[in-house]
TrEMBL record:
InterPro entries: HTH_LacI (IPR000843), LacI/GalR-like_sensor (IPR046335), Lambda_DNA-bd_dom_sf (IPR010982), Peripla_BP_I (IPR028082). It holds the Pfam family Peripla_BP_3. PANTHER family: HTH-TYPE TRANSCRIPTIONAL REGULATOR GALS (PTHR30146:SF109), LACI-RELATED TRANSCRIPTIONAL REPRESSOR (PTHR30146). Keywords: DNA-binding, Transcription, Transcription regulation. Residues 6-60 form the HTH lacI-type domain. The lineage of its organism: Bacteria, Bacillati, Actinomycetota, Actinomycetes, Propionibacteriales. Transmembrane segments: none annotated. PROSITE patterns: HTH_LACI_2. GO terms for molecular function: DNA binding. It comes from Kribbella deserti. This is LacI family DNA-binding transcriptional regulator.
Length: 335
């Protein structure tokens, strides 16, 4: 006679915890100690426990799915280290739960409309969003639906509607200010900026940090955080001021594009033009020269986003629903 199908009670007994603790682990609650969570996950694996989700979902009206919505093209998701770090952090935190992650990349109006129709309680329990632009209607639409929502990046404009939104963001302003102050302290007097998109909070904050040190009249061109936009902006900056001696780029990919153009123009880095990026990506350690950059802890940001969402799903009130993580300047050969 075969053993009966394991239940949540047998999982709890094997793990040496109460039924409630085992249930919280299965349901993805953050109100469980790491030791208890590890014991329950080990018991689940040893017993081959599979929750009867169909029956539970009828009672709880849960889907056990979380949507990750990224408002960028797929090629950027898979090539730029910022997105990879965020997704790694989210995935590692989700691995401690029984939730499934559903990924959607949206760009066009039609794609946003289609995603908006899907993002309901019938399909997902909560939503994580990356790379919001000012004209994106999805955050407000999801918020109005009552679905738990966490953003990566603070809302572009503060309003009564956005006060209750939960988000995780890097300290973009301080990071940019530190980078440009370093260039100024090194005696660079003609500092230019390749800014990020001005319809995104990170793009605005990093340009503001640049102007805090370099001044409102300092040269700036706007890119979209991609390498090609950095190359195009660098060419425009050289046309405007061939004697510039430093560049702060608001992302590492844009810094790589800038370095490529500077080399093609015969400028030595850092002797003629110093370059600083923003991301602290691993690729920067292997560029020629290695890229000085503002490090932002993307994996930590992804984990924090997941923590906030899991707390909402468990009905817990977050002590701090807006999380700002520190940035730091990592000095290498380019500056």
């Amino acid at each position: 006679m075969t053993d009966p199908r394991p239940t949540i009670e047998t999982v709890a007994a094997r793990a040496g915890v109460g039924r409630g603790t085992a249930s919280r682990v299965v349901n993805g609650s953050s109100q469980v100690s790491p030791a208890a969570r590890a014991a329950v996950m080990k018991a689940i694996e040893e017993l081959g426990y599979v929750p009867n989700r169909a029956a539970r979902n009828l009672v709880t009206r849960r889907t056990d799915c979380v949507a990750l919505v990224i408002s960028e093209p797929g090629e950027r998701l898979f090539t730029e280290p910022y997105f990879a770090g965020i997704v790694r952090g989210i995935s590692s935190a989700m691995a401690q739960t029984q939730l499934q992650l559903w990924l959607s990349m949206v760009q066009s109006t039609a794609e946003r409309e289609r995603a908006g129709r899907f993002l309901t309680r019938e399909h997902v329990d909560g939503v994580l969003m990356l790379s919001q632009h000012a004209n994106d209607p999805l955050p407000a639409r999801v918020q109005a639906s009552g679905l738990p929502l966490v953003l990566c990046g603070r809302p572009l404009k503060e309003s009564p509607e956005t006060e209750s939104l939960q988000y995780v963001d890097a300290d973009n302003f301080t990071g940019a200010r530190l980078a440009v102050q370093h260039l100024a302290d090194q005696g660079r007097s003609r500092i230019a900026c390749i800014a990020g998109p001005q319809d995104m909070s990170a793009g605005l904050a990093r340009l503001q940090g640049f102007r805090e040190v370099a001044g409102d009249d300092a040269l700036a061109e706007v890119g979209d955080f991609s390498e090609e936009s950095g190359a195009k902006a660098m060419a425009a900056l050289l046309d405007r001021d061939p004697a510039l001696d430093a560049v702060f780029a608001a992302s590492d990919p844009m810094a790589f594009g800038a370095m490529r153009v500077l080399k093609a123009a015969g400028r030595r880095i850092p002797e003629d033009v110093a370059v600083i990026g923003f991301d602290g990506s691993p690729a920067g350690r292997n560029s020629d020269p290695p890229l000085t950059s503002v490090f932002q802890p993307t994996e930590e940001m992804g984990r924090e986003m997941t923590r906030l969402l899991l707390a909402q799903l468990a009905g817990e009130k977050a002590a701090q629903g807006q999380v700002i993580v520190d940035t730091r300047l990592e000095l290498r050969g380019s500056a």
